[in-house]
Amino acid sequence: MPRTLIASDWHLGHFSAPAAARLALCFLERARRAGDAVVLNGDIFEGLFEPQVHAQSAHPEVCALIAAMTAAGQVRRTEGNHDPGAGVPSIILDHPTLGRVLVAHGHAVDPMQGSAVLNVGDGISRRFGKFAVVRGAAWLADATARRVAGPSIERVFRTLCTAAVERERCAFGVFGHVHRQFLGAGQRYANAGHLRRTRLEFLALTETGAELGRLELADALAERPDAPDSYALLEESACSTG
Length: 242
Description:
Largest sheet: 5 strands, mixed
CATH architecture: 4-Layer Sandwich
Oligomer: single chain
Helix content: 40-55%
Structural class: alpha/beta
Distance between the termini: 33 Å
Number of strands: 10
Shape: globular
Number of domains: 1
Strand content: 15-25%
Radius of gyration: 17 Å
Mean pLDDT: 87
CATH class: Alpha Beta
CATH superfamily: Metallo-dependent phosphatases
């Protein structure tokens, strides 16, 4: 049985590190060779801090591969809050062991998405996100909130996502949005994780169930060692905490 690989929150754009595109390409190329199905579960290209079309233009190889695999029926996409319209709101998969699996980015159940504060912040980001200082301020605010209230936010999000799984009469759900990879025994909620500085996180639906996966930058570089930027990216990986 081919696997279904679910990945989210790549946030690829003009400001992405070169390593991010390399990881995304390697992930997709591996899936294509193996015949695995792929669900890109929202926020793949950045559409908040710059128009999605601009973000996509910065990564033509990734766009071309996604398009080719989509045309071949190997890639499906859902939309996230940073890339609305990039795909459908959710996908339901039938799995022989898990049963019905809901795949959705998860932002729709996030109570902050309807808040006045976030709407103001998003408006500023969409208008001025091309400036590094605005992106930096937004990311700093997000990082601070995660440090202060991260566990509480994740618990609430997990509860809301589990309720969504139940409403859709599914047995299991795979989400993104909070950038925290998670798979707990007996849980009906899982999170595929996100694209980190030197690692691409994902979740795989296998014949026997679900498992978390990681693609490290060093492994991605080993597949294309002759690429012009391989040495520089490997040095960056060695100096980074990921």
